[in-house]
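Recall that a protein's primary structure is simply its ordered list of amino acids. Everything else, from secondary elements to tertiary packing, is in principle encoded there. The following example makes that idea concrete.
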Amino acid sequence: MSRILVVDDEESMRQLLEIALGKDGHRITLADSGKAATKLIDENSFDLVISDIKMPDMSGVEVLRHVKETEPSTPVIMVTAYASAETAVEALRLGAYDYLTKPFKVDELKANIRNALEKKELKEEVFHLKRELRHKHGLDNMLGRSAKMVELFEHIQFVAVTNSTVLITGDSGTGKELVARALHVGSPRASEAFVSINCGAITETLLESELFGHMKGSFTGAITTHKGLFEVAHRGTIFLDEIGEMSPAMQVKLLRVLQERRIRRIGGTEEIEVDVRILAATNKDLEAGLRDRTFREDLYYRLNVIPIWLPPLRERRDDIPLLAEHFLVKACKSMGRNIHKISEQAIELMTRYDWPGNVRELENVIERGVALEPTTVILPERLPEKIRTFGDAPANMPDDAGSDVLPAEGVDFNERVATMEKQLLCTAMARSGGVQTKAAKLLRMNLRSFRYLLQKYNLR
């Protein structure tokens, strides 16, 4: 049921449309003048407006202009008994959906209303899908509050609106594809295709077919003509993940595409123009590949127009609690578990750990914790042993490995530990300017434990 505003100074026309359109289930609001209509438009929301053009106080064109200023997506159908090409052109130029001349057939008007409402609904659906896409794959999907990540987010926003080729580098598991999707979603190409391919997971022959396509009969098994991903991504974005794994022969063919923006299917003779933005990613050191001649120098400089480097998780430890909480909510929703939080001790252990597998490893650890935790709080016992014992002295340490801190005559253990604790506490307080929360953060402990130690050693 749609809300329709009918604007006409003729009472008989208003009554006719109220009855005819009301039978179709629409909710009809009537206005006998342009001024009355603009007031109603300001105070209410309408799905469609039908307006006469020639009215004594305010013309229908002015009503149309007011609708487009107030709610641009609302379709307006203009009707008049005084048809002229000039008024029709002006109405359509201002954004009217259609223009009908009195007397008109009610069925014709109903068809116009139906088409206009369907078009409006389709536009709204596209808008919501785009907004959902931005939320799902845009910067909102990337978490971080550390200085390095804030700088990265700003850089992505700046680079996204360009059409430049981007090379994304970083350790495995740092989220290179998330960056690529955020670049696409934030670009003018966001409404077009985003195509992703892992260059290291496909053999050379198959990779060429996947990227450039092939003609029917071009090789054994080619029973149909196949479009390549460059064609599929036309006007959109193609993401070449693990570009460092690409063979030298494929590097030459990719370089040609980057230079000429044309492809040729396997077995084909026709060159096909492609308009794509190329994003590439690797966890390899491509500059080392240049030195040992496993990666072409000319291709490297074609890809590395704008470099983006993702810091490993160990270099942005401030983000670990935030990411852990995010993955906790995600895992609980997926498994139907009711776990409220992660204990402070578990957070401290995770913040201390170096995370060689980066964000992907952290997500797996939280998922494991949610699956195994019998209580409503993830405890340290649910973390893998390598995280719980990270930083501990290895069991096979040589006997003299600690001779500098443990002399032959021995030491008073409790006294030595107390001295070290006091030194650390005082240093942390000095560096933080006496702010206890900052000092506790430097020592990676919660504020309550920090205050307990200050009180224990009578430190101020």
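Confidence is low (pLDDT under 50) at residues 399-403. The longest strand covers residues 277-282.
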